[in-house]
């Protein structure tokens, strides 16, 4: 998906404060048919939380510990534990999912899985992908990297990083559309890979532009792509979960 094509948040999105306690989530999911809980947490850490609620072996505290400070609290812990329990024994299509729509803090998960995806699908393209990902590598923690990019680089210094993020997104999007990406059970889900690169591009482009409207368009793009991918009704929170 191109960011230019991302529509405004549509009617399938419902907003609520992140007083998304288990009782509220239970009502939305069990009674109203919502199947994705989205918030302004980073896309990359949202992937970790989504995999936890779908039953991987991650400990709940470890998964929530990947989140940013606003969402690293009891409310989030209770929510994802409830989501995981709800999903127990359910078919994949009927499981509730977690979606992080933030692009302000990239995560190492994105870089690792993009590297693995290209290596599996198009080994001949890996040297270039490695160059791009090296240029885009995190300098310190996600928060430290964000501060470095926003406050320590000049506009001229940001420009080649924006170009690298765009090239990486284009490369992954093209590879994800290939037959090789869809053959058998891929090492990294092609749809995940595309959104890893899309969110990474969102960080570098919106940071270079000072955030604002462009960042919101990337949020809209992630939500729209997720809806197209899953068909889910989505509840989207812009609050915090530190309570």
Radius of gyration: 17 Å
H/E element sequence: EHEHHHEHHHHHHHE
The major β-sheet equals: 4 strands, parallel
What fold name stands as the CATH topology of the largest domain? de novo design (two linked rop proteins)
**Uncertain stretches of 5 or more adjacent residues:** 1-11
CATH architecture tag of the largest domain: Up-down Bundle
Total of domains: 2
CATH class identity of the largest domain:
Mainly Alpha
Q: Average pLDDT value?
A: 88
Tally of separate helices: 11
Strand order of the largest sheet: 1-4-2-3
The secondary-structure class comes to: alpha/beta
Name the quaternary structure: single chain
What share of residues is helical? 55-70%
Strand content: 5-15%
Strand tally is 4
Shape: globular
Distance between the termini: 35 Å
Summarize the structure.
The chain has about 240 residues and is α/β, with parallel strands linked by helices. The chain contains eleven helices and four strands; from the N terminus they run βαβαααβαααααααβ.
Keywords, separated by commas or semicolons:
EreA/ChaN-like, small alpha-beta sandwich; single chain; four-stranded parallel beta sheet; globular; 11 helices; 243 residues; de novo design (two linked rop proteins); 58% helix; alpha/beta; 2 domains
């Amino acid at each position: 998906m191109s960011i230019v094509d991302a529509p405004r948040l549509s009617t399938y999105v419902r907003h609520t404060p992140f007083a998304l306690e288990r009782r509220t989530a239970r009502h939305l999911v069990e009674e109203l048919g919502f199947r994705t809980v989205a918030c302004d947490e980073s896309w990359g850490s949202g992937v970790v939380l989504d995999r936890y609620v779908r039953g991987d072996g991650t400990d709940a505290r470890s998964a929530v510990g990947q989140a940013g400070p606003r969402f690293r609290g009891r409310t989030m812990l209770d929510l994802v534990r409830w989501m995981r329990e709800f999903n127990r024994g359910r078919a994949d299509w009927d499981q509730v999912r977690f979606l992080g729509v933030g692009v302000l803090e990239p995560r190492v998960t994105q870089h690792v899985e993009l590297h693995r995806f290209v290596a599996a699908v198009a080994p001949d393209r890996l040297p270039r992908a490695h160059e791009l990902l090296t240029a885009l590598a995190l300098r310190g923690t996600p928060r430290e990297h964000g501060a470095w990019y926003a406050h320590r680089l000049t506009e001229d210094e940001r420009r080649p990083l924006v170009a690298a993020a765009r090239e990486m997104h284009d490369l992954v999007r093209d590879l994800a559309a290939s037959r090789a990406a869809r053959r058998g059970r891929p090492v990294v889900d092609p749809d995940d890979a595309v959104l890893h690169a899309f969110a990474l591009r969102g960080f570098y482009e919106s940071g270079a532009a000072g955030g604002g409207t462009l960042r919101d368009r990337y949020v809209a793009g992630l939500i729209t792509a997720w809806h197209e991918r899953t068909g889910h009704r989505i509840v989207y929170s812009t609050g915090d979960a530190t309570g």
